[in-house]
Amino acid sequence: MLDETIRKKFLAIVGNNHFKDDNATLLAYSYDSTAQFQALPDAVITPRDKMDVQAIVNICNEHHIPIVPRGSGTNLCAGTTPLEGGIVLLFTHMNQIIEIDEQNLTMTVQPGVYTKDIFEAATEVGLFYPPDPGSMHISQIGGNISENSGGLRGLKYGVTNDYVLGLEVVLPNGEFIQTGGKLAKDVAGYNLTELFTGAEGTLGVITEATLKLIPKPETTKTMLALFHDLETAAQTVSNIIANRIIPVTLEFLDQPTVKVVEDFAKIGLPTEAKAVLLIEQDGAHEVVERDIATISTLCEENGAFDVQIAQTQEDAEALMTARRSALSALSRLMPTTILEDATVPRSEIANMVQAINDIAKKYDITICTFGHAGDGNLHPTCLTDARNEEEIARVEKAFEEIFEKAVSLGGTITGEHGVGVMKLPYLHLKVGEAGINVIQQIKRAIDPKNIMNPGKIINMSKVEV
């Protein structure tokens, strides 16, 4: 609970309507989509502009109060859980698209803008913002930047980091910093834009972002390839890439996932298939036609028993919407859904899928697998019950083995969800002790009082503050 004097300082900045510390509000913001970690904040504050943010941060810095920047809370690593109390900072009112600059192909936005609104605003002027996390209809750009979110189009177009040109950030000491800008090139000093992108709110509060836009693709085509087994489908992914074709989307769903998604979406997905590849290509009409024909042939040569090409835009959109609903559909089956994102080089997809299946059998747990197979980013999803402590212990051991296997294949513990709390115990597998030390030193240099989203990415308990 905040000291009354401090409470009055916050009220003086934002007023009663933008400061909440009633029990219902605190409970609502005590967890995020991970739902496995929960801790009550001391207050929830919605700043109206960047000057409010600066004033709030100054108070928190003075009194050593933790700050947890939060958008829609859709992240999947417990990255916005207020583990040490403090202030949850919401950007409900900082939700404006400030500018679309068609000459420089940029868009400048506040952190509370929904991802889908950015995509739609770009489309209206014939431009394209490619990053499309599965939660794009409800996630906000500030959260996308903090987690360096990926999405279904990541194979061809990359992730959020590839489209962040500049940031305005309030540092933990209350100072503003401006990084990057509307520039095609900028090598003046360290790349601070990339440092704050993916920092999960542990280094500062993003108050504005300049995003890169690209020309809108001329046309798009979508297809499904059906397989009798997981391994053949996974190997087909590697073969498509090896043939020098980069689809915009190359998604993998196993049979349990397909069945659940079909039950949820009811669009006629082929539930008899043991595995499904959802493939989309965009670009010039003749290129798309050629690539889809080649991919179709490769799928058939690699064992697909059926290849279906969407005949209308409505059919294509239904398929992509169904894929985006995978997590929502799976989460209906059991009280607890643990969605991970082990990532490997594309050539190791088949090996990783086989390893996930073997590990699930070893620990006698249910794991459904789907994900962005084209860029090696798989989402093994465990359906369990957090109240079953014995099973949860097996789940934890299973995921530890999955992460170890991913790293051994040249991969990583997370491709797009972030470290947060969920992956913190496994970070050393990827970066090593020397890497842990470097991350701690960066954190200590920028946030010496450890007030910015403490307990996420890195354990600072051994760092003097």
Can you characterise this structure?
The protein is α+β, with helices and mostly antiparallel strands and 465 residues long. The chain folds into four domains: 87 residues, Uridine Diphospho-n-acetylenolpyruvylglucosamine Reductase, domain 2, CATH 3.30.43.10; 119 residues, 2-Layer Sandwich (Uridine Diphospho-n-acetylenolpyruvylglucosamine Reductase, domain 3); 110 residues, 2-Layer Sandwich (Alpha-Beta Plaits); 75 residues, Alpha-Beta Plaits (2-Layer Sandwich). The chain is built from 15 helices and 18 strands. The strands form four sheets. A seven-stranded antiparallel beta sheet has the order 15-12-14-13-17-18-16, with helices on both faces. A five-stranded antiparallel beta sheet has the order 5-6-10-8-9. The protein has a four-stranded mixed beta sheet with strand order 1-2-4-3. Strand 17 and strand 18 form a beta hairpin. The chain is globular and about 70 Å long.
Q: What is the gist of this entry?
A:
The protein is 36% helix and 20% strand.
Count of DSSP-assigned helices: 15
Task: Estimate the global geometry from the Cα principal axes.
Answer: globular
User: What percent of residues adopt helix (DSSP H or I)?
Assistant: 25-40%
Order of the strands making up the biggest sheet: 15-12-14-13-17-18-16
Which structural category fits the helices and strands? alpha+beta
CATH class of the largest domain: Alpha Beta
The value of Rg in angstroms is: 22 Å
